[in-house]
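Wed. Picked up where I left off yesterday with Glycerol dehydrogenase. The coffee machine is broken again, so keeping this brief.
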Amino acid sequence: MKNSALTRCHYVSGKKTISDIGRYIALTGRKAFVLGTQSNLAAVKPLLADSCRLHQVEFVMERFNGHDSRQEINRMVALAICKVNASIIVAIGNGRVAAIGEAVAALAKLPVMVIPVSAVTETFFPGELPESSHMNRVSTRACL
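Structure written out below (tokens, as returned):
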């Protein structure tokens, strides 16, 4: 028999979704632990900072080193719980970053928000995407 879990997950989509990150963080508490690649963190930081300031929440960013090892997951959990005292984990990216974010959140017993890379790149490089593509919307998945 497989293990399974039921969570309250929300799928949010729209052009202003990244600008509303602070509002979603505020639903869980006052501090987010944000992880991602260096380029994704740099791309989202201005909007994240504005949104968090508007909703009176804080965030701490940590670069994911690219290794999905138990050691990296434990490092992130320790930072999120002990150093940051986070109320939510925010993973900015796909694949390994999303998986690490979900693992960190599960071990830390915190909610997780995953923001796909397509959401980050479309927000900051809109002229480079075809107008008629399905990528004219930003999506965020959050388990709160």
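Quick read: The beta strands are 9-13, 31-36, 58-63, 88-92, 112-115, 139-143.
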